[in-house]
Amino acid sequence: xxxxxxxxxxxxxxxxxxxxxxxxxxxxxxxxxxxxxxxxxxxxxxxxxxxxxxxxxxxxxxxxxxxxxxxxxxxxxxxxxxxxxxxxxxxxxxxxxxxxxxxxxxxxxxxxxxxxxxxxxxxxxxxxxxxxxxxxxxxxxxxxxxxxxxxxxxxxxxxxxxxxxxxxxxxxxxxxxxxxxxxxxxxxxxxxxxxxxxxxxxxxxxxxxxxxxxxxxxxxxxxxxxxxxxxxxxxxxxxxxxxxxxxxxxxxxxxxxxxxxxxxxxxxxxxxxxxxxxxxxxxxxxxxxxxxxxxxxxxxxxxxxxxxxxxxxxxxxxxxxxxxxxxxxxxxxxxxxxxxxxxxxxxxxxxxxxxxxxxxxxxxxxxxxxxxxxxxxxxxxxxxxxxxxxxxxxxxxxxxxxxxxxxxxxxxxxxxxxxxxxxxxxxxxxxxxxxxxxxxxxxxxxxxxxxxxxxxxxxxxxxxxxxxxxxxxxxxxxxxxxxxxxxxxxxxxxxxxxxxxxxxxxxxxxxxxxxxxxxxxxxxxxxxxxxxxxxxxxxxxxxxxxxxxxxxxxxxxxxxxxxxxxxxxxxxxxxxxxxxxxxxxxxxxxxxxxxxxxxxxxxxxxxxxxxxxxxxxxxxxxxxxxxxxxxxxxxxxxxxxxxxxxxxxxxxxxxxxxxxxxxxxxxxxxxxxxxxxxxxxxxxxxxxxxxxxxxxxxxxxxxxxxxxxxxxxxxxxxxxxxxxxxxxxxxxxxxxxxxxxxxxxxxxxxxxxxxxxxxxxxxxxxxxxxxxxxxxxxxxxxxxxxxxxxxxxxxxxxxxxxxxxxxxxxxxxxxxxxxxxxxxxxxxxxxxxxxxxxxxxxxxxxxxxxxxxxxxxxxxxxxxxxxxxxxxxxxxxxxxxxxxxxxxxxxxxxxxxxxxxxxxxxxxxxxxxxxxxxxxxxxxxxxxxxxxxxxxxxxxxxxxxxxxxxxxxxx
Length: 955
What we know:
With 955 residues, the protein is mainly beta.
């Protein structure tokens, strides 16, 4: 891990110099442009008559043409002359669901493109993937990127617009149709250096977060490059800093607990006489070290066990440290665009899992024991490092992509290599053999109630889990048109590729070494097409509206699994203006990841879990890692979607989709325990053996000791989800609106008003051909796009954006094993720690911005759920969960008097925010109205309300 150590300690210095090289020449502003900062370097709109040929599609020298188009090109198949694609044009005929312009992007107040992607998550996540809510595929200027590192250093000010596409768009780029597509169209000429410092604090205390970022980004028509660095640090949060009560199911305590060994269970008849009752256990009082113990000292703790000392030595959230350096370079070489990128990052996480316990035998003749009988002492040893877990991860990524045009087809060749080295070290406590022997022998130098002599203790050998994952990949994709049809061009995408993934896992568990290596080679071939059938208003059937078909197929050949097939298709229909409908179906087979199969086993002690069988909160050992017996899954997905814009002159639109899926051999994690899981997988649960001498034998259930949570295959799962939402945008005030934008059917405009690093300029300096405020529907190639306004917000103009999304789960059932009844996760069944699946989820957001300042209010709500505890346990009721967050930003250079007096304010932005504004946490109750210890509020949400503050400086 020398690489990780060097990297982490070098980030502070890297941030100090990142993007601050002298001698940078400012770009000239357009004549008449009113900049928001003298240091502004954006000059995207130098002229509305500048060529904006997309780099990957540059098929002719630049000409002086309208800003929204490039030179003409000739289709290789049909022989007809067509307009070349505008800047940032994506593949295929599927139009974006939403388009966000500069003003929309500015209103989010994001400091980086990564933050913007996170803020857009409610609009871009997809429920069609194997991992739940899948993030979007990122494109830049309509092109695939070599990796996330190519995107991470781009500031939001460099983005001209952002387009959100449905999952079917991914097929045009060779991906599965289970992720939405987010396309960022960049300005043609832009340069910016950025430094940012962000701090976060939990209002309940105990948890702080700090992150420093710095970088430089430059784009100059056919070339762009970026380099950035970040360093992040998080402090640990301990259980004692929250309302956490450890389980009393274990007999250990820091001071100790005494238990009797007589046949009647008493510690000492004399102690029972003092206490006035039979005493079978007693907690050790403080201050007994030095041989001063007497029977009277134990009366107050008679028949009481103390076991609440782990809270000071166990973390709810780990200490974290992370650093990364990333860079990317892209430019045109004739008709070919080449991009290279790299990423080097290192993370470290440290958790404390409690204290080691020791069982000591005190004989009646022990000089420190006041008891006339032999007794047993259980105590913790104050050595938190003995059960510490440290996880270090180093990652290296290198990637390259080449894009170009050949005979009217856009081709992409890409390759990447990444390696992740992870090392986990988990303490297994102390070797107390010598210490226990000395106490049992009555050594007068060893006080069982006092400090433990260091000479009698040594750390036990740690459990280790090391893995090295390498991935090498190469693929080729080509997209273009096959022929011209009356309703449009038949477009196709083909892809072939090969990758090799290897996971080398070594572990040592309780001194027993294990090694597992997995190498998985995969060859892929896929094809997809878009076939326009009808165009609204054209031909005899034009009254039916625009209709198009799409289809796709994928074959994957794995060296260790065999062949897997994916086939899908759909139809898109726009019957009238403002309405779009779609139907898609896919059947696919998917493999378990090498990590799910081959990750090393990791044991975590002292994990609090609620045991439904007994109704108790217990501390168990959780086993994690890979499962080599996992099988591929198979799923069928049907999706219906609609889009509706009821008013032509208002920025209001409604969208929705209905998804039904059937998954056979579903690959699922094993996140929690439930009666159904224990019944289906009894070998995954280890309980204490109840001796036959116990009076409650055989009806008594032994205490839960460990849970194996490695992934499994469930028999099948059935889901039906309805999602819908509405978006509304309103602008008022400010100067008169610029000239109207393109009419329906015209190519989208890509020119925009000039913007400095802080945001918009006055319309006088911008291009008159930008999209008009107020937005509207744009119809192109049979598709339909909702434009949420156009251009950056002019000074004095106020902008309000409101969006509401609702998820309604109609059905969510799982059959764990064949022959068992389905589990209704919406009504009493659970496979997760947070109860069943909420039937309803609502997300709402409102943004208000004006002249360099803005505020965003975000709210979410999840409906309540419950879990059937079975015949033995209590039912659990999980309350609904409403949360609210507030964030605001202020450009400090909006006040010219300030910037004249304090020059450093130029290009500075202050952000303030509060997450979980009212510190709302989910409440869990059982049948008695009590909250089990494992479901205390601070277990469910340790951080709680968090305050954020950041300062961003643009140079």
